[in-house]
Amino acid sequence: MRAGRVGAMLQEARAVPRVTVGELVTFVASRYPAPMPVTRALELAGIAELAGRRVDRLSGGQVQRVRFAVALAGDPSLLVLDEPTAALDVEARHAFWDSMRAYARRGHTVLFSTHYLEEADAHADRIVVIDRGRIVADGTGEELRRAAGGNLVCVDLAGRDPDFLDLLPGVRSVQVRGSRARLRTDDSDATVVALAALGAIHGLEVAPASLDDAFLSLTSHETKTETV
Amino acid sequence: MWDYLRLEVRRTLRDTGFVIGGIAMPVMMYLLFTNLGENDSAWKTASMVGMAAYGAVGSALNTGGAVAEDRAIGWLRQLRVTPMTPREVVIGRALTGSVTVLPAIVAVLAAGGLANGVRLQAWQWAAIAVLLWLGSIPFTLLGIGNGYRLTGPATGVANMVCNLGLAVLGGLWFPVALFPHWLRSLSAYTPTSRFAQLGVAVSDGRAPAPGAVLVLTSWMLVFCSYAVLSYRRRAGNS
Question: Which of residues 35-74 of A touch B (CB under 8 A)?
Fold first, then answer.
């Protein structure tokens, strides 16, 4: 931290009153031994045109991007972001991840936390799932999905009693919604063959489990992910 | 550190509340109190020092309000994740406080010299300004102590109570001579009364009394401990 190799974007920080965007980012950059040019930090954060505006007169999403520029200003090798996209609209979120990727490509590490799993899945090379202070999973999105139990098989019950589904090979869990059953299975081939043998195939659907599903199987309550 | 000082001074001077309450108010009160009814030049001079002291105390305490605000919005935490050390932040803040008391002192002295025709030697003007500037340090520490200890709104209230209470008790608004006897003896122990005495002595062509320096220094030590304790208490979560 003292050596200026870490930049952080804190989640709960609000706008610093009575200072312009340019002044703020310039000041923070000047604390670091080898900062990036201020205009570059503003561009990466997508706020180059706001440099002369006062921070406390910006919208929530704009302030978020100012805080991002503040975290970037020192050109740190490790960038820590606490729920960076929480207040951003879709367009700003895309722009944000584009600049993050560009930053990481230059050999920097970006560590971010998020509640949005699709975000972690799409942008993180490594995902660590933390549940009540305990690490419950650590790996790529693909590894997490696999660890949580491969695929999802959905069929119409067509009037059958769902009890038999639990006994099918590979099935880990069964969820019934109306007349439709969702089976999480380690071996979707075996499950489907067994279903066919029972003549129970109606409206069959086989899909890879989503990261959300993987996540729910890892934890069964409120959770937070840290991703690298 | 100088960058930090510059940034914080700039932020303070953009604060309309500070400019009105800390600079314009003492000047207006001074002009009002010395131009209503009959006033001799001795009162114009004494009140000038008193109101300059009042403005300096208000500005010094305001530093604490700024600290409370910076804590609340997470600015101090943000500084903590930069390479700046906490020591640099605290010292930078204290220096900001000592810079931002200057406008009030200069403005009231200017009003005295230009609008009220107060005539003093050049060295007296300089000495009064410098003494009031140095003498405001205890009040900056008091404000910082409040700012680290209390929430934003509570700091505002505490600073206002300290400011008005100490100003009236210390005779910054009205001469202590108008007070009943018991209040007058109490007033002698207030930091504000002794603070103003530094300037009053110089305007009379004397050096400040050792008693004034002693009482003010004691208060400075008290407020300094208070500021340090408050800061330590917050060190974990500010």
Answer: 67, 70, 74
Cβ of A14 and B83 within 8 Å? Answer: no
A50 torsion bin: left (phi>0), alpha (psi -120 to 50), beta (else): alpha
- Same domain? For A17 and A104 the reply is yes
User: Cβ(A218)–Cβ(A127) under 8 Å?
Assistant: no
Tell if the CB–CB gap between A13 and B77 is shorter than 8 Å. yes
pLDDT in tens, B109-147: 999 999 999 999 999 999 999 999 999 999 999 999 999
Same domain, A106 and A36: yes
Provide the pairing of β-strand A109-114 with A78-82: parallel
A26 and A96 in a single domain? The answer is yes
Tell me whether residue A29 is in a domain: yes
Return the residue matching tokens 């018991």.
B182
Q: What is the ipTM of this complex?
A: 0.84
Closest CA to A210 of A131, A118, A112: A118
CB contact under 8 A, A18 and B85: no
pLDDT digits (tens, 9 = 90+) for B10-42: 999 999 999 999 999 999 999 999 998 777 889
Global pTM reads 0.79
Angle at which helix B152-169 crosses helix B41-73, to 10 degrees, equals: 160
DSSP character at residue B224:
H
Nearest chain A residue (CA) to B16: A18
The dihedrals phi and psi of B127, each to the nearest 5 degrees, come to -65, -40
- Ramachandran class of B206: left when φ > 0, alpha when ψ lies in -120 to 50, beta otherwise: beta
Instruction: Look up the CATH number of the domain holding residue A68.
Output: 3.40.50.300
Residue A200 falls within a domain, yes or no? yes
**The two three-digit tokens of residue B235, written as one number:** 């060190």
Answer yes or no: do A23 and B7 touch at CB < 8 A.
Answer: yes
- Considering only the beta carbons, identify the residue of A2, A16, A27 that sits closest to B3: A27
The CATH code of the domain that includes A160 is: 3.30.70
Q: DSSP class of residue B23?
A: I
> Confidence class of residue A215 from pLDDT cuts 50, 70 and 90?
confident
Chain B residue whose CA is closest to A1: B83
Are both A92 and A18 inside the same structural domain?
Answer: yes
Choose, out of B70, B82, B87, the residue to mutate when testing the contact with A (most A CBs < 10 Å).
Answer: B82
Q: How far apart are CA B130 and CA B128, in angstroms?
A: 6
Token representation of residue A108? 């920097």
Percent of chain A topping pLDDT 90: 25
